[in-house]
Structure formats: C-alpha cells, structure tokens
Amino acid sequence: MSPTGTYIISGLNDNTIQMWDATTGKGLMKLEGHSNYVRCVAFSPNGAQIVSGSDDKTVQIWNAAAGNEVVKIEGHSDHVWSVAFSPNGTQIVSGSHDKTVRIWDAATGNEVIKMHGHSDDIWSAVFSPNGTQIVSGSDDKTVRIWNATTGNEIPKMEGHSDNVWCVVFSPNGAQVVSGSHDKTVRIWDATTGNEVMRLQGHSDYVRSVAFSPDSARIVSGSDDKTVRIWNAATGNKVMKMQGYSKPVWSVAFSHDGAHVVSGSLDKTVQIWDATTGNTVRKMGGHIDWVQSVAFSPQTAHITQLTKQLGWVTSSISSPDAIDSGAVSIIGKDTY
C-alpha cells in the first residue's frame, strides 16, 4: 500500500503489476514490462515510485503516477524474491536466489554494492529503520547484517537448524527477529549478532514474524495453523490464537499495536485483539490462499495479497461490506 494508504499495488502471476484505489477498489492501471512472475513489490517512502522484483531476474522502478517504467535494473542471475526502498528513498535493496543481496541507486538503477556471503537462496532482505544496515535471511540457515554503505558483513547470526524464511528489524533498530523452518523464532542483537533468546512453541515452520510498533512484542505465524504473540524482553508466550484450518503465512501488527492481522492458506484473514487474543473479525471470500497481509499506516485499511487475485484491501472506515471483484471493502465498526 502507498504511504498515504490511498493506493494498493500487487505483483501478479501474469507478469504485471496492478494498482488499485484503496477506497473504491477500482483498478487504476496495469504496469507491464516484466517477462515472468512478479514476486515482490514496494512503494517508495514518498509514494512517488514503485519497485518490483521478478522471476525474470530484474528489478524495475516505475513512476507511480504515470505507470511508466523509469529504470530497468539487470544484474541478478536468478529470481528476485525481495525488494525494498531505503527509508530515505534513495536506494533499493534486493535479495535473490542467486545468493546475493544488492543495493541499487534508485535514481539511476546503477548497482552500488553487491553483498556476497550467503550460500543458498535469499528469501528476505530489508533496511534497518535508520537505513544504515540491511538484514537478510537465507536457505543457508543464517541471518546476516550488512553495512549499507560499505557492503561489509557485520555479524553473521548462526543458530537456526533449517531455512530462514523471514527477517525484520525491530522499530528501534536494536534487534532482529527471524522465523525459520526449524519451528523457532529467534531474537538477535543487531550490533553483536548474538542470539538474545529463542522462542519455542510452534510445532511447524514459522513463515512470518513482526515486531509491535513499540518493539515490546513479537507476533509469529506458522504452518501449525496458529498465531502467537511473545514478550520480546522475556521470550514468554503471551498468547496463542487459533482458528485457522491451514498454515498461517503472514502476520502484522496495526500501527497502534492494538490489533494483529493474519492471513492463511485457508483463504481467510483474521483480525485479533492483541491484548486478549480474541478474534475481532474473520474475513473470507478469497478464491485462493492469502500470502501477505498488512495494515496501512493510518490503520484505515488492511491489505491482503492473495495467490490468484493479487492485493485485496479491506477499508475500516465504512460499516458496509462491498464486494468489488478483486477488492473487498469491510467496515471497522462491524469487526
């Protein structure tokens, strides 16, 4: 979703990117240029540009207003599975199955730094909140932090016994949390790379992790069909939320920390009270599994990436439920 919460973008299996109006659900434009599946998309911090990564091995930058391709970035030798802008919007980081993390100049598309170190596919790569570091997770079972200026590897975090599927910095930048196929969630010191604590409780792969806005809690989603909230200081499980019939592949806190949203392969999205763990609302109607979910910055919408339809948004400003094809708009007052 755009930083203002006005637009939604989706990377689709027809090699295109679709932009939607987040309020009406109307399709605004389709961006064409990739020659294979689009695996990841993101807005720039100011909403003026879009970056995408694809199985065609390219990263592309688009003008979000006009829909035209601004820069086509070539360099990766395998699928690109993760892209993100730096906090100031001047750079882009990408993670690829070619085992490299790369930083690109967002204005020119020139490669700034290529980071080697991972020995297997990279699934996730993101900037730190202040833009000085990058964290990446890989099938080589490691989490690595890189200096975003020099490209030097700072700490390498070893401890997971299986693929690392998801990584993210805490909002204060002091810690990193990772989720793995070894069924654990781990917290790492972002400065030293030391494991701070290991959160155990899931009985299957951990697919998604996120910090609360105040860095005090962590939420995780797993193939064991549960969503769990943990105390980030003690590692204690605060609550376990159940209600899915298939794996949970995406979780996120609302921007006020009051709610958690999760998406599952059972084709539903659920909103939970982050204090009680009670289900606040369950949203179905998807024709296939929900791959990714997120609250917009204003907590006015929930965005969901579905396998077949791309992004679906639920508005929480109107009490009415509106079926708008690929976009559903559902009111906050009723959840």
From TrEMBL:
Record keywords, A-Z: Repeat, WD repeat
InterPro entries: Beta-prop_WDR90_4th (IPR055440), Quino_amine_DH_bsu (IPR011044), WD40/YVTN_repeat-like_dom_sf (IPR015943), WD40_PAC1 (IPR020472), WD40_repeat_CS (IPR019775), WD40_rpt (IPR001680)
Keyword match RNA-binding: no
WD repeat feature ranges: 1-30, 31-72, 73-114, 115-156, 157-198, 199-240, 241-282
Domain WDR90 4th beta-propeller: 166-286
Gene3D superfamilies noted in UniProt: YVTN repeat-like/Quinoprotein amine dehydrogenase (2.130.10.10)
Highest classification ranks of the organism: Eukaryota, Fungi, Dikarya, Basidiomycota, Agaricomycotina
Keyword Repeat: yes
PANTHER family with a match to the protein in the record: CHROMOSOME UNDETERMINED SCAFFOLD_625, WHOLE GENOME SHOTGUN SEQUENCE (PTHR45333:SF1), MEMBRANE PROTEIN-RELATED (PTHR45333)
TM annotation in the entry: none
UniProt name for this protein: WDR90 4th beta-propeller domain-containing protein
